[in-house]
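Re: [ENG-882] Designed sequences occasionally contain unexpected residues at chain ends

Forwarding the minimal case from QA. Structure tokens:
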């Protein structure tokens, strides 16, 4: 359990620290380009793609990890058993 918590914490830390770093480098690059619009668009597009990819990868891995954990612990089976109780009494006509 401790390993799972640490993995989630450090994964989130990596995303939280890398996104501003990528944004900072992109802003610095745009500032140094002195108005060359075509290159600025390329730099901003690459930065947006990098930030989106990092965030999406973290969230996707976290979702799959949570799903695998709930399956391994058997949570889905108990939910199905509670959701569909069987009745032993015959229906009234």
């Amino acid at each position: 359990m401790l390993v799972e918590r640490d993995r989630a914490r450090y994964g989130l830390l990596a995303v939280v620290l890398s996104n501003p770093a990528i944004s900072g480098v992109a802003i610095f690059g745009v500032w140094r380009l002195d108005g060359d619009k075509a290159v600025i668009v390329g730099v901003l597009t690459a930065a947006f793609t990098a930030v989106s990819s990092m965030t999406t990868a973290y969230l996707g891995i976290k979702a799959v990890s949570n799903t695998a954990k709930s399956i391994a612990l058997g949570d889905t089976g108990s939910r199905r058993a509670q959701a569909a109780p069987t009745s032993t009494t015959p229906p009234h006509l």
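QA comment: On inspection the terminal residues look reasonable. Residues 37-73 form the longest helix (37 residues). Proposing we downgrade this to a documentation issue.
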